[in-house]
Specification:
Structural class: alpha/beta
Bound molecules: zinc ion
Distance between the termini: 38 Å
CATH class of the largest domain: Alpha Beta
Number of domains: 2
Strand order of the largest sheet: 1-6-7-5-3-4
Oligomer: single chain
Radius of gyration: 19 Å
CATH superfamily of the largest domain: Collagenase (Catalytic Domain)
CATH topology of the largest domain: Collagenase (Catalytic Domain)
Number of helices: 6
Number of strands: 10
Strand content: 5-15%
Largest sheet: 6 strands, mixed
Length: about 300
């Protein structure tokens, strides 16, 4: 999948004994921390209690209640996926909005009806026109459900949502790494609307170490549509879902084409709440609102 397949990252070996040191534990801890499961301090390289508890938490989340082996858990942990944490204060993905059904898993949403998006830095993997078409298609799907109008701009209008392909460190504190490192399974990440997304609010970044493809005519490569469709959800304020069929499931699903009924219900109630939501932080430009999730925003 990567342009650099020679450095395929693998976590291997049996489950370590509790409190044993093993070289396998370093990448395990890095991944668990990266995706929001290991939040307590742990001893690097040692399979200590915080590491074990974090692994158990991940196992619970990724197995939908089924009993899965350690080997299978590690396999799932290493799968290609979105870089946004499954338990991020940034997306407040585990905090339900009070009085909504189903619970909404966001921190902030856009208030205006029209949003501009711009491709700031395309990939060289295929023609720019093809990339434009894919983003248009992905945004229009979100538009149908949210009632938002998405318009592509080339600089005529200030973009609300920007799309860029980067490699490695790219100055937002969330570096991409090529396959071969603990973060090698990360294909993209995105920042929620302001104020929670801060100065990167609405930015969507794709790992340009991946080989991107425009359609299913080639087996090799990562589907840009599948990843963009998911990441736009984050740029609109959605967090991750544990439902493997959901657009907001964190793991790569090449066949992702559409929303589930539950996704639609959730998105509609989220963007339907814009008018009546209680404001906890009134931004100066009034372009976004923050739903009251009972969290403190620094
Ligand atoms: Zn994601
Ligand atoms: Zn980034």
């Amino acid at each position: 999948m990567s342009k650099n397949p020679k450095k395929l990252f693998l976590l291997s070996g049996p489950l370590p004994e509790l409190n044993a040191y093993s070289p396998n534990v370093y990448p395990l801890q890095a991944l668990l921390e990266q995706y929001g499961y290991l939040t307590e301090s742990c001893c690097p390289g040692r399979y200590d209690e915080p590491t074990r508890d974090a692994l158990n938490k991940f196992q619970e989340c990724c197995s939908s209640g089924d009993d899965i082996s350690y080997e299978e858990t590690i396999k799932r942990l290493c799968r290609a996926r979105c870089g946004v944490s499954d338990n991020s204060a940034m997306t407040a993905s585990t905090l339900p909005v009070v009085h909504s059904s189903p619970p909404i898993t966001v921190g902030s949403i856009w208030l205006q009806d029209r949003l501009y998006f711009q491709i700031e830095k395309p990939t060289a993997d295929f023609a720019l026109d093809g990339q434009r078409d894919i983003f248009e298609k992905a945004f229009s799907k979100w538009g149908e459900i949210t009632g938002l109008e998405f318009k592509q701009t080339n600089g005529e209008n200030k973009p609300d949502i920007t799309l860029a392909f980067h490699k490695g460190e790219h100055d937002d504190g969330f570096p991409f790494d090529e396959a071969g490192t603990p973060n090698g399974n990360m294909a993209a990440h995105a920042f929620p609307p302001p104020p929670i997304g801060g100065r990167f609010a609405g930015s969507i970044h794709f790992d340009d170490a991946e080989l991107w493809k425009k359609d299913e005519s080639t087996a090799e490569g990562v589907s840009l549509f599948a990843i963009a469709f998911h990441e736009i959800g984050h740029a609109l304020g959605m967090g991750h879902s544990q439902d493997p069929h959901s657009v907001m499931y964190p793991f790569y699903n090449e066949n992702l084409k559409d929303f589930t009924e539950k996704d639609k219900e959730m998105i509609k109630s989220l963007y339907g709440l814009r008018k009546q939501a209680r404001l906890v932080a009134q931004p100066e430009d009034s372009q976004t609102i923050t739903l009251n999730l009972g969290i403190e925003i620094a």
